Automatic annotation (TrEMBL):
Full protein name: DNA ligase (ATP)
Residues annotated as signal peptide: none
Parent-protein start and end of this portion: 571 to 871 of 871
Keywords of the record: ATP-binding, DNA damage, DNA recombination, DNA repair, DNA-binding, DNA-directed DNA polymerase, Exonuclease, Hydrolase, Ligase, Manganese, Metal-binding, Multifunctional enzyme, Nuclease, Nucleotide-binding, Nucleotidyltransferase, Transferase
GO molecular function: DNA ligase (ATP) activity
Amino acid sequence: KKTASKSTARERAPAPEVRLSSPTKIIFPDRNITKQQVADYYKGVAPHLLREIAGRPLSVIRCPDGVGKACFFQKHHTAGLEIVRFVRLKEEAGINANYLVVDDVAGLMELVQFNALEFHPWGAHADDPDCADRVIFDLDPGPGVAFAEVKRSAAHVRDLLQQLGLQSFLRATGGKGLHVVVPLKPANDWKLVKKFAKGFAEALAASDPDRWLATATLKLRPGKIFVDYLRNGRGATAVASYSLRARAGAPCAVPLAWRELAALKRGDAFDVDATLARIKGRRKDPWADIDTLRQDLSAWG
Ligand code: ATP
Ligand code: MN
Ligand code: MN
């Protein structure tokens, strides 16, 4: 209740209505979920999702013909978008490109109209793209790793971070794994963030090589959890909390309180309905403090 009413002036401004074409088109065939229902979901979670994506360079996964058909990952602004703005940023090759930036509900709904299903922000803001305000440890279980083991690993990462004086936040990805997210304030240079994330992952792997994998290989290793620290680099993205996933069952990425970890059954435990019900029923946003904590990595410079 508290977070929903604490909207910014932008969110309160009357949003231009985006007309939704093909509202009856089926997007999740296994659940008979239509484009209208996807739009209704995103309207429902908009204030919460916007806290995660507003003002950040954003990639989307678009599925024009629904899940199970061709979907594509889009980083750049394209013709036809009128509400969604862009920020011109230097890419790795040194060439400039126009990155998508959403500021408000109208922009979000315009991307939904363009069949965006998943939202993947940078860990940085469009006006400060060279500094990260989030470190993300993406725990990717290889074949044969039980979810209980993924949970144990996430708790271990949390404890190690705590020992370094860093508070972290838990996310069920809506997929196979979990994310452990460390907010940074003030934001830190990507170089430092990358160095920290890589060092942390490599130390984990060295401490228990049978359990952890910290090297980026094309394939996940059976029985091991890949600590994907590569989410931490300029231009890298990770799925936003409250994003739908273009996967069977219409699962969502969901922010959790650490005390909820014990009861969690899977990374994709929350579908559209469960996610909306969770927001309605809860007393407090489990990530309420994420933007107010002040912690940074300058000690690791
Ligand atoms: P899971 O829990 O199943 O691992 P996840 O969201 O963590 O879910 P990953 O495969 O571990 O999925 O992470 C892939 C990340 O890489 C995505 O979150 C996305 O932001 C980023 N990414 C970069 N390029 C692409 C691409 N072409 N297609 C999909 N994801 C991409
Ligand atoms: Mn992952
Ligand atoms: Mn990954």
